[in-house]
Design goal:
eight-stranded antiparallel β-barrel; mainly beta; 10% helix; two-stranded antiparallel ribbon; 248 residues; 14 strands
């Protein structure tokens, strides 16, 4: 039986999402094909009893040159920060775990949300029963320039369960996340740290969860999709992130 694989397209987006120390690396990255290591491409929820296997053929994502300017700093906050994603299909409210994924959360907020980076980007990969991925491309599937890669915090105890948000990265480089993220539509244990062997053993870093708007997420999961060149399972009608606002 063949191993479910991560959408080829997703890995491209990852170039914007993907970096070496628990902070940010100061180097620049410009992989021709970034990949997000999200395993499997079949629909249906996953359970611990039947974990989704790691991606054997990563999704390709067009990546732009990552900038080393303004590396993220560790956030010091009294309560969990929240972000409101206003999309063309409705609002999604995220609560981020700055305690368990401090560098990842700070990168998301300081380098992207606060700068308006996500405004006008789309969910470029949608697979029912698996995940929605976005945060790196415009509606015409042009990549946006990202900042420095950050080090993976996937070994933080948080799991890729339904409703959680995690970072996209290159399948062969754990410390390569930048701007791209995905929302799990099901429990995806094959994406967790230490769940698999080989290149995917590092897993994908979960850094928050959907606290309102999971109905919107599920609605997006139902949209018709098509393959556009190197971008598989792309919504026929773009699902746009109109704005991403740090609300607390």
């Amino acid at each position: 039986m063949s191993t479910p694989r991560l959408p080829f397209f997703l890995s491209m987006v990852l170039t914007s999402i993907l970096p070496l120390q628990l902070g940010c690396s100061s180097g620049e990255g410009n992989p021709s094909a970034a990949s997000m290591v999200a395993p499997g491409s079949s629909s249906g929820s996953n359970s611990e009893a039947e974990p989704r296997s790691a991606v054997t053929e990563p999704v390709q994502v067009r990546a732009s040159k990552a900038s080393s300017d303004t590396p993220a700093q560790s956030p010091q906050r009294a309560r969990p920060p929240e972000v409101l994603l206003k999309t063309s299909d409705g609002d999604i409210r995220l609560r981020l775990d700055a305690e368990k994924a401090p560098q990842t959360v700070d990168n998301f907020l300081s380098n992207y949300v606060s700068r308006g980076f996500y405004d006008g980007t789309v969910f470029h990969y949608v697979e029912k029963g698996f995940m929605l991925a976005g945060g790196g491309y415009t509606a015409d599937l042009q990549p946006k320039e990202t900042r420095a890669f950050i080090r993976s915090e996937a070994n933080n105890g948080l799991k890729n369960k339904r409703g959680t948000i995690a970072m996209v990265r290159q399948p062969d480089h754990a410390d390569s996340a930048t701007s791209q993220f995905f929302i799990n539509l099901a429990d995806n244990p094959g994406l967790n740290h230490g769940q698999t062997e080989g290149a995917d053993k590092d897993g994908y870093c979960v850094f928050g969860e959907v606290v309102e708007g999971m109905d919107v997420v599920d609605r997006i999961a139902e949209v018709p999709v098509t393959d556009r060149g190197v971008f598989p399972k792309t919504p026929v009608t773009p699902v746009v992130i109109e704005s991403a606002e740090w609300i607390r």
